[in-house]
Amino acid sequence: MKNSFRYAAIFTLSFGLFTGAIAGEEGFKLTGNVQTQASKALYDNDSDNNLDGFWFRSNFGGKYTSDNFDGQVTIRMYGLKFGNTIDEKSYDKFQADTYWGNYKWDLGDNKINLKLGHWKTDWSVAGNFGSYVDPNIATRGFLARDYSHDAFELGWATGPSTFNAMLATNDSKFNTGYIRLEENLKLGKPFEIGAAYRVNAIDVITNTAVLTHRAAVKASFTVMPSLRVYGEAAMIVTGTNDDLATAPNAIKPEYAEDTNYFPFFVGLEIPTAGLLNNLFVEMEYIGDREDFKEDADNMAWTVAAVKKIGDKTKAQFSVYSENEIKDVAMALRITTTIQ
Question: pTM for this one?
Answer without folding.
Answer: 0.85
